[in-house]
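Whiteboard transcription, Tuesday session. T.W. wrote the structure tokens on the left side:
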């Protein structure tokens, strides 16, 4: 007499056999030509829909970029949709945001930050859609010019807030635990924070990108995603284009950066920061400028400029690396492993 266990094992094995038999039976041959045509139509439809969606998004973005007021309004709309999803605009939560953080969005600095954000978002969508960088350069240069002016306004507010805090500390009663709270520039301080939250965050992380669902339209390769990064825009987008075209305007960026970073050091009014820039950071930037000559095809100018930097900064931490790099250029037959990389002390 067979045990129940054997019957169970036999049943399981029979089931496996049935499944195996079923899997071995294929369906009738498919119409390959018809299926390929259907897939091609599907791809065309998807491509058309994607182009229409991209165009619609670009139109919305450009409309917002046309004025600070429109930009601020659309940014606020995005914040409500993403951060307060499902809650009414006249509800307690959203009204509280508008009265606190949102108030700064209506300041000149906050509104202009929103406008700049939408300008860069529009340029990014165009690039992601296939527009060549060379065709976007006029827009990019105009944008950077506005970004530089915006940066100056933001710095002025920072300086005013800092001075007020310093004065508050200076006039605080003897023995007081906390200085008097600044009030004159309190709103300016909030507007600066709003400004930074808009321009220093990657496009894809913004409430606008999430609300509009445009993540597929803002990811071009070799692109700066932070709207407020002047250095990123130049180093990732503009300089590679200039180098490819052997355009001497690449040198202008390093002149601009040397002055900009020098001004930043001067604003601190700290001897340590000023000395650090003059003795360490400025020579590093001058070396990068000298290297730029090579990248745009002016080898002899580059060699002369590199030698000048080395002579002017013999005690710089990077000096021996610079010497090794220049020797490698002057002696092209030298092995790559013989050269000492110029490691920046600032890194």
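and on the right, the sequence the group agreed on:
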């Amino acid at each position: 007499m067979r045990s129940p266990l054997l019957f169970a094992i036999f049943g399981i094995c029979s089931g496996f056999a049935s499944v195996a038999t079923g899997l071995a039976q294929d369906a009738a041959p498919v119409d390959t030509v018809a299926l390929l045509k259907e897939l091609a139509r599907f791809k065309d439809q998807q491509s058309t829909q994607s182009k229409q969606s991209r165009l619609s998004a670009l139109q919305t973005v450009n409309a917002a970029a046309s004025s600070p007021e429109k930009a601020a309004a659309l940014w606020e709309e995005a914040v409500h949709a993403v951060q307060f999803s499902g809650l009414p605009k006249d509800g307690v939560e959203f009204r509280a945001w508008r009265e606190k953080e949102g108030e700064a969005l209506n300041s000149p600095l906050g509104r202009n930050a929103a406008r700049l954000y939408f300008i860069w978002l529009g340029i990014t969508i165009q690039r992601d859609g296939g527009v060549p960088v060379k065709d976007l350069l006029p827009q990019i240069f105009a944008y950077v010019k506005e970004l530089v002016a915006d940066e100056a306004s933001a710095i002025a507010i920072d300086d005013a807030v800092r001075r007020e805090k310093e004065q508050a500390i200076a006039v605080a009663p003897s023995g007081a635990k906390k200085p008097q709270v600044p009030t004159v520039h309190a709103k300016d301080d909030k507007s600066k924070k709003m400004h930074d939250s808009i321009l220093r965050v990657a496009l894809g992380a913004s409430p606008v990108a999430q609300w509009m669902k445009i993540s597929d339209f803002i990811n071009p390769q070799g692109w700066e995603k932070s709207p407020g990064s002047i250095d990123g825009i130049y180093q990732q987008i503009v300089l590679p284009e200039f180098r490819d075209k052997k355009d001497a305007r690449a040198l202008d960026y390093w002149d601009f950066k040397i002055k900009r970073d020098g001004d930043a050091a001067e604003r601190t009014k700290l001897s340590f920061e000023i000395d650090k820039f003059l003795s360490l950071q400025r020579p590093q930037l001058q070396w990068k400028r000298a290297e730029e000559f090579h990248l745009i095809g002016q080898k002899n100018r580059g060699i002369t400029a590199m030698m000048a930097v080395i002579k002017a900064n013999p005690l710089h931490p990077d000096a021996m690396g610079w010497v090794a790099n220049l020797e490698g250029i002057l002696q092209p037959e030298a092995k790559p492993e013989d050269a000492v990389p110029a490691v920046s002390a600032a890194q």
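Someone added at the bottom: The two ends are 83 Å apart (CA to CA).
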